[in-house]
Amino acid sequence: MVQNRTHQIVFILSCVLLVGAGIVLIWKYPSTGSQRELVVAVSHALMIAGLLALTVDRFVKERLLQEITRDVSKYLIGYQLPDKIQDKIHELMATSIIRTRFEQRYRLVPLENGMMRVEAEMSYDLENFSSSEQRYTPHLWFRKHENATVIDFGCHSNDSGSHFHQTRQDIAMNEGEDVVRYGNKVIVVQPRGSGITYGYSPGSN
After folding, report:
1. Residue 203 has pLDDT above 60, yes or no
2. Three-state SS at 81
3. pLDDT tens across 29-85, in order?
4. Would you give the end-to-end CA distance of the chain in angstroms?
5. What are the C-alpha distances in Å from 137 to residues 36, 84, 155, 159, 189?
6. How many other CB atoms are found less than 10 A from the CB of residue 204?
7. CA–CA distance from 179 to each of 36, 102, 143, 147 (Å)?
8. How far apart are the C-alpha atoms of 130 and 157, rounded to whole Å?
9. How many helices (H) and strands (E) would you count in the chain?
10. How many C-beta atoms lie closer than 10 Å to residue 68's C-beta?
């Protein structure tokens, strides 16, 4: 935002300088002489260029940008696609919380009945790509037929308000019709670049 404001100030000053140069050129140059008409033409050109750039040209560019954005947005959000698909595209375009450096490891443990138990470990970093803090609820979803149990869940952060560690008996569980949801702790994620990190490491079997 600071950079954009600096560009605007420089642009306005440049336009004012163009107009001022035209005025000074007419005022300083003698009223007679063979090059008088050329000087007047150049002066008028400088003043008109400055005024157009400061008013009409700026308005036209902003209007053109709005028109292009409106036309292109139809294709970005899935023009003439079903409403549910357009809603999903809107949701993805508005995403600000991103998981990065995602890792998932599996271990197969033989059981006495000839079956296998799958032990999974997951870890990832959380980044907020917006310019303001965002509320986030880390959670895990499993289908009921998977018969999963979360044994360890936590966020390792240098923000004391977001750092937590939960064991099996502490993790909240909510059952739906055919899914089970683990986790209900809400944290506040600061914008990327603030120096605060958020690393998650849930485990299940």
Report:
1. no
2. coil
3. 655 566 677 777 777 787 787 777 777 666 666 666 666 555 565 566 556 667 777
4. 47
5. 74, 24, 11, 16, 10
6. 19
7. 86, 23, 4, 10
8. 19
9. 4, 11
10. 10
Are the C-beta atoms of residues 193 and 127 closer than 8 Å to each other?
A: no
58 and 44 fall within a common domain: yes
Rounded to whole angstroms, the Cα distance separating 67 from 64 reads 5
193 and 168 in one domain?
yes
Residue among 18, 77, 102 at smallest CA distance from 53: 18
The SS3 of residue 189 is: strand
What is the rounded CA–CA span in Å between residue 15 and residue 46? 9
Residue 59 DSSP symbol: H
Residue ending a domain, choose from 66, 90, 114: 90
Tokens of 20: 């001022």
Domain that holds residue 52: 2-90
Same structural domain for residues 79 and 120? no
Question: Residue 6 above 50 pLDDT?
Answer: yes
Distances (CA, A) of 47 to 17, 18, 41, 114: 9, 6, 10, 89
Q: What is the DSSP letter of 6?
A: H
Instruction: Please indicate, yes or no, whether residues 124 and 156 belong to a single structural domain of this protein.
Output: yes
Q: Do 101 and 84 share a domain, yes or no? A: no
Overall number of domains in the chain:
2
Same domain as 108, residue 72: no
Strand partners, 143: 179
Output the six-digit token pair for 120. Answer: 């999974």
